[in-house]
Amino acid sequence: MRTAALLLPLLLLAGRAQAAALSRGPYLESMGASDVTVRFRTDIDTVAWLSYGAAPDCERFLTPAGPGIEHRVQLYGLLPDTTHCYRIYLPVEQSTCDYQAYQGTFVTFPDEDKPDFSFLAFGGSGSGSQDQRDLAAQMDKFTPDFVLHTGDMLSSGRDSEADDEFFAPYSSMLARVPFFPTLGLSDYGPGYDKPAGREFLRYNYLPFHSVPYTGLYPHYYYFDIGNARFVVLDANSFAGARYAPALRPGLKQYKWLEFVLSRARDKAWKFVVLNEPLYSTGSEPREDEIKTLEPLFQKYGVDLVLQGRDRDYERTVPLKDGAPDQVAGITYVTLGGGGMSLGVEQRTEPWSAKFLPEYTFALFAVRDRDLKMTVYDKSGEVVDTLEIQK
Q: What is the pLDDT of residues 60-74, one digit of tens each?
């Protein structure tokens, strides 16, 4: 690999060449034990190269990207639970040189026989506000295996606002930790309930995000890590999203959900992630969602349901059929206070264990059959905890 680290400044000063530059990213998505997707945007239509390997051997493998502005590079053959380094090279026009535009590292998922992992979860972040940036700074202090977003990444879903509201606040984490997104109602755009919203995701979401091809891209999917399965749903049809896939008995997403949960019986942990909450005192009761989804969650032993949409933090007691049940109940956690304007508690319910109209994120640490959730606010203070032993 030829680089122009020394030659590039001279060429640019002389006005004889122009170098392509990164204008977004890099950011990691859709990771596993042996693969990851690296994405980035360049300021001009260009080819690029990406080298990678187990650290410190960053030049073990080389793969091209492009031509184009949006670059998506899948890295295969990685070692599980291993720190890898990667470098992005971009060309210098009117020359035979290229230069190193970025160097970073990431750690791949552990094999199935290693039951320990950690992750961050948050949502409702799309605002570009100082509150969002303060919360992002606190999140950046941690080194989780991955990050879950519970939806509503952008205030109106448009890619034109994505840098200010998503890629810039989390730039450091995005380059070293994979994010797994959930579609929220705002991600469907302002015309989510109108015929004009039909092509919105095609132009504002699909070109910029990758999720595992284990369901219906980009709406719903699942992934495994350690002894856990994570199932990410698109429940926005309940909220009126015209082109969101329906989630009702007999229909495709529902049948897929049952199949995926039924094939996870050997997993110690089962998590479901969706933007539309089932149990929340920050909004009106969701009886339709509860009646549709709760029986399936209970049948297949879901442990935690992570929710978004409402702009707050809330944790329920373990619930079965809407009543407290410490043995067979499911805990529902709303994580929607990622940066957007906060909501208020609209009613009181006996099943609500904690409600906070604050900017928060949660750190989950799974150690075999023990789970601990620690919730932090934007100043880094612990505001809630939860422990589950199985």
A: 999 999 899 999 999
pLDDT, residue 88, reads 98
* C-beta separation of 128 from 160 below 8 A: no
pLDDT score for 98: 86
pLDDT confidence of residue 12: 42
Paired tokens of 273: 């992630």
**Cα separation, 362 vs 337, whole angstroms:** 11
Superfamily, domain 7-107: Immunoglobulins (2.60.40.10)
Residues (pLDDT < 70) of the chain are 1-17, 94-96
Q: What is the DSSP string of 321-354?
A: TTEE-TTT-BEEEEE--SSSPP-------TTEEE
Buried b / exposed e along 262-292 (16+ C-beta atoms within 10 A)? eebeebbbbbbbbbbbbbbbbbeebeebbeb
Residue-wise pLDDT tens digits, 315-332? 999 999 999 999 899 999
According to DSSP, the β-strands at 360-367 and 116-122 are antiparallel
Domain ranges of the chain: 7-107, 116-389
Strand runs labelled E in 110-195:
116-122, 146-149, 179-180
> 249 near 206, Cβ under 8 Å?
no
pLDDT at 94: 66
Among residues 254, 257, 286, the alpha carbon closest in space to that of 270 is found at 257
Q: Encoding tokens for residue 72?
A: 């998506």
Q: How far is CA 256 from the centre of its chain?
A: 21
- pLDDT for 365 equals 98
- pLDDT per residue over 2-29, tens digit each? 444 444 444 443 444 588 999 999 999 9
d(CA 184, CA 219): 10
Whether the predicted model's global pTM rises above the 0.90 cut: yes
Per-position DSSP letters for 6-71, written without gaps between them: THHHHHHHTTS--B--EEEEEEEES--SS-EEEEEEEEEEEEEEEEEEETT-TTSEEEEEEEEEEE
**Regarding the domain with residue range 116-389, which homologous superfamily does it belong to in the CATH classification?**
Metallo-dependent phosphatases (3.60.21.10)
**33, amino acid identity:** A
Tokens of 292: 């549709």
Give φ, ψ of 228 to 5 degrees: -130, 150
Q: How far apart are CA 232 and CA 215, in angstroms?
A: 9
